[in-house]
Specification:
single chain; 980 residues; alpha+beta; Rossmann fold; 20 helices; 44 strands
């Protein structure tokens, strides 16, 4: 303080206290990046998580694997999701935030066919025939709908089976119209099989055949409360149909699985507990059997709502068409894949027309709801109230929800951001219609309806000739698509409908006198989810609480969720258009065989019954039977409707317990182009390669053991020069999702000596990487299940707990900070896959592999802290490498405070005043034993000043950890002196 600052009035001694020991405020703590799978959450983009409770909210809890159950409908939980355990282990210490990257399948834009993401049934893509794989749908005709012996009415798709090569599914039962001579043929590869009259439960019978298990007959129905329910009778585990990886013994493989089943539709058409007819047909694009629901090879894709549309302002009803109404906006997932359409729906609520003279824009709310809730008991996941279509308003719906999204650039190898408004929703972003976004729509327009999800085109009025023209643009195949070479229509091993509808069907073993006569006509329909018909459905105490639009309940009057609803909203086939409503559906090849929307809902079709109950009838406005004025509907309180999400896809192979398993890649040959698994991992790793894009000090992909990818992790960290890669080694332990072994001993795929030799052969030589051996066992908190985890998971907890107890530069090893039995891992550790001998520990440590040892008296402990650097230096230890990373990162952050300041002595002094207290503080906390900061004319020379460079030198002496203790025990005679 200058002497001029003192106030001198009378003589005396004036003392002022100046504290120069202030420690500059540290930057936000920096934590690790964890890459792995999870049950939900934003995918393929870094997401910062502050606590484990936040992690569970965003990504779900730990998954121990072996989940079983209905995998086809509810998702794949067969393999442990190691990333969730790593996040839990680290976040429990509460020392720093964690960045998580959830993995979903991606394929390179230049991928070869081997490098496609997703899945398909094993088949010959040139044709779809029995024993050649594909998707087969059961279309059900309710007997009451059969008009006559010549017309079978409309059959609705009830279920879909996916069949791999060397397997088949066939209906068994009486041929339709037995009186015409069809007889009691027991098995039909296809055909309208009448439910046997002797079966009082009205069940279908399917024959499932495979080269491994032979044939078996299965009776089933659609009553989900019965033991004969279709999903209880058939395999719903796609992994039993897979030959890749040999995850199950061959004699247990079914080579087929039940996919979608549409119980809601079956109840609505009264197909449960009544006599029905059925036909089993292959589902694929007409003229292109390779495209269909059996071939889902593409990168992950976001679920979305249909376009929300405005109300009719024309006042003309006779020509009204809801699909012609103005599109306003749609909601698109922010990276959730299939999770969004399986778990969420969107409601537009509190629709209000303008009540002021200052603006014609009305308001509305956008609500993301749990798909299983009902209007009687709404479960809100998030909501945005008082939204408007006015682009100039702070409540503009685009601004309120957010329009930004990330897209991966394969040329720049980074995520690029697009969009105008920051995302406020955790689940969706909004895409505005171009005209609406520019304020070009009528201000009176409000979201009043929506385009429903797309579906396959119905096959209408199929005649006995079953010509290509009759089924053009459908996903129902004709006989010409189905026959094996040399086969003719009528043979029972061909899945087709032509023979059934023709007048000359002859079944196996039947004589010419036992053939069908005459012709048949029928239609085949693909189902959509029921829409709420009446405000009174569900028994609401206040009918105005009813949300029209999609109804997710079991029956119209029910309040119980129907589990089949998400099945209606799956992606139809690979590379389906992002916006199908932008295509001319009959002309666009992208939509051949599909329609751009299954239905279009609008509150414009709301009317009232004779007793004043508000109800919805599609086409009511065109017919002139709806309420004419939209304000009348809204003022009556019927101001809400609900829309589904559809079309999400995870880009993962559902036939694999772990769709990103290491065994799916081949050493020396797998690349981004020929392996979607390789591309997925590499893209996630490359996402964090730019230190300005993502802050981190540690990178881990738990369970990834593929050498070229773990090597790439080390390379990325070394190039960043501010992070440590924690990698896992191959074959230390082989979990069941990597391969099937009946002998547990076979799961130990290597020895300490071989592991050491293999790592030495890789010649990594980098202080920016480290690894540990062997795997450890934990007990899952939620299920109590024992799970084997890669050592990187345990070390995430050790690194965090070590920092919490001491500092980041203390060695994360030993009994004080590396005692896994004592809880150092943040999760319980109960065992190791291999108990190491003293000799094995030495072998590993000499090769820079850190042992995890198990001692009889002291338990399991981390017994090493080397980096992968081969040359001896201070940086061949993890604690020193972590120290230097910390110093560089923090000093770099502090240095930004003088960036663009004048390169003069005063600025130099300011720099030293920022850095020296920080280094002193690290020294007092035993990170370094000494340091020296040099910034003067000897470092920042006039020449560097002319180049706008400030150059400083910081020399440090890292504090070393004690790894060896040598003690001499000297045995002395009784008369000897200790002073000698």
């Amino acid at each position: 303080m200058s002497v001029s600052s003192f106030k001198f009035v009378s003589p005396g001694v004036f003392i002022n206290e100046i504290d120069n020991s202030f420690i500059p405020k540290s930057a936000t703590k920096i934590g690790p990046v964890v890459i792995g799978r999870s049950t939900r959450g934003l995918a393929m983009q870094p997401t910062l998580v502050e606590s484990y409770s936040d992690f569970v909210t965003m990504f779900g809890d730990t998954v121990p694997g072996k989940g079983g159950g209905d995998i086809s409908r509810y998702g794949n939980y067969q393999s442990p999701m190691y990333g969730t355990y790593a996040a839990k282990a680290f976040l429990r210490a509460n020392v720093a935030p964690l960045t998580y990257i959830r993995l979903l399948g991606t394929q390179n834009t230049n991928a070869t066919s081997d490098g496609y993401a997703g899945w398909q049934t094993t088949k010959d893509p040139a044709k779809l025939v029995k024993d050649n794989g594909g998707a087969y749908g059961l279309f059900v005709f309710v007997s009451a709908s059969v008009v006559s012996t010549s017309s079978i009415g409309t059959g609705s798709l009830a279920a879909v089976w996916y069949v791999d090569q060397s397997a088949s599914v066939q209906l068994s039962g009486n041929i339709y119209n037995n009186a015409q001579g069809g007889g009691n043929e027991d098995t039909r590869a296809s055909g309208i099989a009448k439910v046997l009259s002797t079966d009082s439960n009205y069940l279908f019978t399917l024959v499932v055949s495979s080269s491994l298990q032979g044939s078996k007959k299965v009776k089933f129905g659609f009553d989900d409360s019965a033991e004969t329910f279709i999903r209880k009778r058939f395999n719903t585990n796609p992994q039993l149909a897979s030959t890749a990886g040999a995850f199950y013994p061959s004699d247990s493989a079914d080579r087929y699985w039940l996919g979608e089943s549409y119980e809601q539709k079956m109840r609505d058409i009264s197909a449960v507990g009544t006599a029905c007819y059925g036909v089993l047909l292959p589902i694929a694009q007409h003229g292109n059997a390779a495209k269909g629901p059996h071939s889902m090879q593409q990168s992950s894709r976001e679920g979305q709502s249909g376009w929300f549309i405005g109300q009719d302002l024309s006042g003309v009803t006779g020509s009204y068409a809801p699909e012609s109404m103005q599109k306003l906006f749609r909601l698109i997932g922010r990276g959730h894949g299939e999770w969004l359409h399986r778990n969420c729906k969107a409601s537009i609520e509190k629709i209000r027309a303008s009540t002021t003279l200052t603006s014609d824009y009305g308001t509305f709310s956008v609500v993301i709801r749990q798909i299983s809730d009902t209007d009687n008991k709404v479960v809100v996941m998030e909501r945005f109230d008082n939204c408007t279509m006015d682009p100039a308003s702070p409540n503009f719906v685009g601004r309120k929800i957010g329009t930004k999204y990330l897209s991966w650039s394969t040329t720049e190898l980074r995520l690029k951001e697009y969009g105008e408004y920051d995302n406020k929703s955790k689940f969706v972003r909004i895409e505005m219609n171009t005209v609406a976004d520019a304020g070009g729509t009528d201000p009176l327009l409000l979201p009043y309806g929506y385009f429903g999800p797309p579906r396959y085109r119905d096959a209408l009025n199929i005649t006995s000739s079953f010509t290509d023209v009759a089924i053009d643009n459908t996903f129902i195949l004709s006989a010409s698509n189905l026959l094996n070479s040399g086969e003719v229509p009528g043979t029972p091993d061909v899945l087709m409908m032509q023979a059934v509808l023709s007048g000359n069907y002859q079944g196996l073993g039947e004589t010419a006198g036992g053939v069908l006569t005459g012709s048949l006509t029928g239609s085949l329909s693909f189902p959509a989810v029921r829409l709420r018909a009446s405000a009174s459905d569900g028994g609401l105490s206040d009918p105005t609480r009813a949300c029209f639009g999609i109804s997710t309940t079991r029956e119209a009057g029910s309040t119980k969720y129907d589990q089949s609803v998400p099945d209606y909203h799956k992606l139809l086939f690979a590379d389906f258009p992002d916006d199908p409503t932008s295509y001319n559906v009959r002309a666009a090849s992208q939509l051949s065989g599909a329609v751009a929307w299954g239905y279009v809902f609008s509150l414009d079709d709301i009317g009232t019954s004779s007793v004043g109950v508000y109800h919805y009838v599609s086409g009511a406005r065109k017919a002139g039977t709806s309420i004419a004025s939209y304000t009348t509907v809204l003022n009556a309180g019927y101001d809400s409707f609900t829309a589904p999400f559809w079309g999400g896809f995870d880009g993962l192979d559902i036939k694999l317990p772990d769709p990103l398993y290491n065994g799916g890649m081949t050493a020396g040959s797998s690349t981004e182009l020929n392996s979607a698994t390789f591309n997925t991992y590499k893209q996630a790793i490359d996402t964090v390669s730019d230190p300005e894009a993502v802050d981190m000090n540690l990178l881990v992909v738990p369970g990834l053991t593929f050498d070229s990818l773990t090597g790439h992790m080390v390379d990325v960290c070394e190039e960043r020069a501010d992070s440590l890669a924690l990698i896992d080694l191959a074959n230390v332990y082989i979990p069941s999702h990597e391969a099937y072994y009946s002998d547990p001993a076979s799961r130990i795929g290597t020895t300490p000596t071989n592991a050491a030799n293999n790592l030495r052969d890789r010649r990594i030589d980098s202080s920016y990487g480290c690894t540990f051996y062997p795997w450890v066992q934990t007990r899952d908190d939620s299920t109590g299940r024992l799970v084997w985890l890669p050592p990187s998971v345990a070390m995430m907890g050790v690194l965090a707990s070590s920092e919490a107890k001491t500092e980041i530069w203390f060695a994360p090893a030993g009994f004080n900070r590396g005692g896994l039995t004592e809880g150092a891992a943040g999760i319980p550790v109960t065992a190791v896959t291999e108990k190491l001998t003293s000799k094995s520990r030495d072998t590993l440590y000499e090769s820079n592999i850190n042992p995890i040892a198990s001692f009889p008296s002291t338990g399991i402990v981390v017994f090493g802290q080397k980096t992968l650097q081969e040359r001896q230096s201070a940086l061949d230890r993890i604690n020193v490498r972590r120290l230097v990373i910390y110093l560089k990162k923090q000093i770099s952050i502090l240095s930004t405070q003088i960036l663009f300041e004048q390169n003069v002595q005063a600025t130099w002094n300011r720099f030293k005043s920022l850095i020296e207290p920080f280094l002193t503080n690290v020294k007092t906390r035993f990170g370094i034993t000494d340091y020296r900061l040099i910034l003067d004319e000897s470092t920042t020379t006039p020449d560097l000043i002319d180049q706008n460079i400030l150059y400083a030198k910081i020399m440090i002496k890292p504090a070393r950890a004690i790894e060896f203790i040598a003690i001499d025990f000297v045995i002395m005679s009784t008369g000897a002196s200790f002073d000698d």
